[in-house]
Amino acid sequence: MRETITSRQHPLCKLVRSLHDVKGRRQHKLFVIEGGRSLMTAIHARWSIERLLMRQEDVDVDWEELAHNLNIEIQPVAEEILEYLGATETVPGLIALCKLPQLATADWNVEDLLLVLDGIGDPGNVGTLIRAADAAGAGGVLLTENSADAFNPKAVRATAGSIFNLPPIQLAQRTPDAAVAALQARNIPIIAAVAHEGRDCFRYRWPRRCALVLGHETRGISPALEAAATARITIPIYGRAESLNVAMAGAVLLYAWRQSIEAF
Q: Looking at the whole model, is its pTM more than 0.90?
């Protein structure tokens, strides 16, 4: 067992802190997850995990056996260091360093709904939408360059492990134009979610295989994606609210799609 880290100046502490920023994640090709539940989901998904940071008193025989079987190094750290390295106000039970997926996925395809996040800037909303897509049985998630990074610690935490079940498709180019080209090359119809004047999402006959595009709550969807849409759909508002938060709207639309394809 390695010596317990007690100093914030330790190189490993500096590495973990750098992974809170997208530049650091891309440089080191790593991201962090917090907590045992997300870690176990990652393990079941056969995700590549490089190291675990845990309090010395939490490292028992079971953890040592698991780490040995998976060839994962356990690094004990003081509780105050674990708190310093975490991205939340509460001390995480553990922190794991995971490898980022490859830059580009050229051979991807989906037979169900592909959720496209275009201009979703809040990492918490990105993570919540990935979780909702996983729950609804979507076939994949794709993010354009103007959305928050799905491997931001806040986004990863909001997925509650779904990032490992439904990791975002990685395109070499992440522009809206590139997304349109990739979808059209695979003959995937594009459905744009709009706040007003679209077809009622509950009455719309959803195709099983489609790309549902969610955009910025104020600016909407990028012109390239909206121009390529074969349909525009809207969630009806029955009360006095102007609209729904994008994460709430996304969950409603995902289940409207699921209900539609189950009914037919």
A: yes
